[in-house]
Amino acid sequence: MIFRLDMIKGSKMTLEQRRKLSESHKGKTLSEEHRNNLKGRIPWNKGKKFLEFSGQNHHMFGKRHNPESLFKMSESHKKRWQNPEYQKHQSEVHIGKSSPLKGRHIQTNTGRTHFKKGQLPWNTYKPFSEESKKRMSESQKKYWLKHPELREKMSEIHKGKPAPHSRETLLKLYESGSFPKQTNTKPERQIKEELIKRGYKEGIDFIHQYKFMNKFMCDFCFPQQKVIVEVYGDFWHANPKKYLDRTKLHPHQIKDTNKDRAKEAYITKVDNCAWTYLVLWEMDINKNVSECVDKIEEVLDIE
Fold first, then answer.
1. Exposed site from 96, 127, 211, 220, fewest CB < 10 Å?
2. How far apart are CA 201 and CA 217, in angstroms?
3. Closest C-alpha to 203, from 194, 212, 214, 192
4. Is-contact 68 146, C-beta < 8 A?
């Protein structure tokens, strides 16, 4: 018995070893004696589908690679493909062959599905839950902290490229009527979080997204003090500190500012002018959300 040191269990054959092994088997067939010995034997995998013995028994069943492992596999794969000999070998192996999953629809017992061309995935129009978004965000933050060089690389790649949902794109969507009205925006969430930190209770002390007199939707309402707080986006509501020349406003800005004036005029005249209308701008909230909530408390104390 010959013990080969270069073929210890767990080791991988080099490309040269694979080539020699392939050459040694070319043109060879099983001997008659070997064929007779195989007659009557039932193959161990006869009648079994591939997934039956490679799904639940697989060491990665129900698991996912963490970002670090994915990065290592990616780097290893890139390094392997830098070898011209490997590229040539893979090219020769796959000449004339199509993907084994092409045109097929397979539901695996791991819950993953391969779709036919043109078929929409099951979750195309299903939004992620807040919990899923939070987990993805935390995972991405950890990944960027571990690999700052990748972050710099991605930054260089996307430098100068417009965002996929630029303002021009959003305006086109608004004009076509296919963009839904935005509620619970980031500035609103910042104000809400600060209010809760200070001990205010939602549904008791204030109401978020309040329908005033069944006519106008307001961002925040303090019903006991009769105070309405509106959070205005700098662009959509044309912040006068940013847009000094009012003659150059976009049609959408003009439309929104007209609505804002009508809304404020209506609310401040209800119940013999008993309601107070307070506006907080996105720019001020991003600068210091605490000062903005201080303004709300000043109005509440006055009332």
1. 96
2. 20
3. 192
4. yes
